[in-house]
Every structure is written in structure tokens, then in C-alpha cells.
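Section 5.1 Outputs to date
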Amino acid sequence: MTDRKFVFMNMLWRFAERIGAQGVSFLVSVILARFLLPEEYGVVSLIMVFTSILSLFIDAGFKNALIQKKDADQLDYSTVFYFNVGMGILLYLVMFGAAPAIARFYGEYTLVPYIRVMSLTLILGGINGVQQAIVAIRMQFKRFFYATLGGTLVSAAVGIWMAYIGYGAWSLIVQRLVNQTMDTVILWITVRWRPSLAFSADRLKPMFAYGSKIFLSSLMNNATTKLASLLIGLFYSAEELAYYEKGNHIPDLLIANVQTSVQSVLMPVIAKQQDERAEVRIILRRSIMTSSYIIFPCMTGLAACAAPLVRLLYTEKWNIMIPYMQIFCIAYMPWLIHTANLQVIQALGYSDIFLKIELIKQGLDFVLILVALPHGPLVLAEAYALEALIAFFINAYPNKKLVDYGCREQMRDICPVLLLSIFMGVCVLAVGQLPLADIWKLLLQVISGVAVYFGGSVIFKLESFTYMLKFAGDFFRRK
């Protein structure tokens, strides 16, 4: 029987790691936004369209395969390590040679040196993949906390200094490179594992049979997600791409923190409990209800106070990003429910179902992008939000059969939190109409939102709220 409190504590450690690192990154991005122009952000976004997709080829699903495999040993780890490093070097050479062609594709001939330097992150991604899998298998998420936070702090100092003295887009590129370098170095120091001089193609084949489906799913998901950015950069401008990406930044920041926490912990836990479906159902339900209780009010509240927040953080030159931020808040509301459902399907070994789900979703996403593209970047963001809402039903459907917890049961559990979050958002939006300075308006919106949400949780005795209070009480009594 899995200790559910142990699972929750590991989620908290992973969440603390993401909050610490991303909190620092967010502060840095605010400072850099004041030094840099939107088009300089757009240049980096253009390059990341390619590097983020290619990074998936480095792992090719083997990290998940290691976590899912019950009897993974030193030979398995070493084999995956050498495959990842080899792919990282190969893909870097591809990007180095293709840099002029990519620059011509965008009509931005200054991109060549930027591409060649930023693509070094591909090699680093190949070096630390096995360490990340080992941390997940051993449930030692404190190590992620130290590695990520250390890399973020050092890279933050470097990025701000370079932006201050006028390095423009280079400050963003070097910041990302330093961040990943420090993350890799700290993981290598703290995780007591080193590769052996051994490689087995026979070990790679069965892991590839499982991991390849996860890889193809991730590739399609990432490709369609980045396709919108690529098309905006191609048919519109780097400045409009910057507004699109920047509007996505804060909602994505909040979601990425919780999503990574849930995803990192759920996968190894459910993989170990895959023969006990009743226990898996309990873990899935608790994960969905707890994450929804946290994310729904964050997204609705953020959308409601987007205008004063953007003006205070980024100045009025970024006002165009406000509607993008509000749309992405809606798009990300069901994201953690997606993650929890898909983690169950992966961890139970049904990578074929996982692939079919992604094929359906990416086909839908592709059609929506083609329909929305002629109408501008804002409509593309709206299409992304529509696909995210439809994806809830697609992701949840198989789990009715697998663990007896499908769309109807999940909707019943999350509806009270959803309705309370919407009511809170309306209240926050109403407060935002008051004729106050942005700083006081934002402060009053936050206070009123917190009061309405927690007051409603107490009045209606929401299950998630009661569970979190009980857990917190047990935790502090033990301390």
C-alpha cells in the first residue's frame, strides 16, 4: 500500500523546487522586460520553436521507460545515458549546420550565431536525463530542489547583468544556457550514479517499444503547440510573437510548477501500484481534486486582474499582451487534469492508448490552427483554449475503463471548485472597475479574491479544502 502522505510530501518538495526556481525566473523576466524590447524577446522565441522540439528526440521516451520498468538496472541506465548524449551531440550538429537556412526561413539573418549558441542546451539535455529518472524512481525530489534553484540563481545574475550593460537578446540566450549547465552540474554532484562502460542494444529495444509511443505523443503535442508560434513568426512579426509568448508566460509559469510536481511524482508511484487499480483510482482522484483546488482560482483570479498586473510589472509598452494572458488562463485551467489522467495511462503501461489519444488531439489542434491563422495571433490563442477544454474529455475517457474514474466522475468532483472559482473571478473583476491606482487596485483584488475563495470553501465545506487542512494539521503535529 502506498503511503499517500509520502506521495503528497514528494509533490510538495517538487512544487517547492518549481516555485523557488520559477519565482526567481519570473522576477528576472520582469526585470529583463524593462531592459529589452518585445522584438528581442521574439528573436529568442523563434529559436526555441526548434530547440524545444528537438530536445524531445534526445530522450525519445526512454526516461519514462526507465521509470515504468520495474527491474531497471545499471546496464539499462548506462545504455539510455549513452543514447541520450549521442543524440544530443548529433542534434546540436544538425542545428549548427541548419542555422543559416533557419535564419533565411524567418527572414532574420542575424539569427545564425544566436541559434548556434542556444542549441548547446541540446547536449546538456542529453547528459542529465538519466539522473532525472533516478531521482523520480527513488522519490528523492529534494535533489531537484537544490539543482534547479542553484542553476536559476546563478543564471539570473548573469542574465540581468548582461541585459543591463546592453547585450539585448544575448542576455536571454546566455541565461538559459547557464541555467541548464548549473542544473546539470548540481544533479551530477548530488545523484550518486555514474554510467558504466557498457551499452546494450538488446536492452534498448524493449524500452523503445514502450518509450517510442510516449515520444511520438510528446513530439506531436510539442509540434502543434509550437506550430502556432512558428506561423506567427513567419506570417506576422517577431513583435507580435513576443506578445503571444509573453501573454502565455505567467499562466504557463503557474501551471508548469504544479504540473511538474504532479507529473514527476505520479508516474513512479502509479507505476509501482499498477497492479492495484483501486489504489490508483484513489491517487488519481486525490491528485485531480487537490490540483484543481489550487489551479482554478489562480487562473480565474489572474485573468481578472491581468490589466493592472501587466502595467505594473512590464510597463504600458506590453499592454497588447493583456488579452493573450486572459485567454491562456482559461486554456490552462484543465491542464493538470490532463496531466493526471495521462500519467495513469502511461504508468499502467498503455502507451498505445496514450498515442491514440495524442493523435486525436493533435489532429484537432492542427485543424483549429489552420482555421484560426488567417484571423491573427489572438484568434490562434482562442483556438488553443478551445482545444484545451475539449482535450479534458478525450484524456479522461479511457480511465473510466482502466480505473473506473472517467469524465462524469471527474466533472462531479471538480464542479464545486470550478463554480466557486468563477464566482470569485467575477468578484475580482468587479473590484477592478474601481477608480484606483493600479497598485491599490491589484492589492484590493488579491485580498478580495482570497477572502471570497476561502470563505466559500468554509461555507460549502469543499472536500479538497478539508483534506488539505487535515493534511497540514497532521504534518505540523508530526513536526
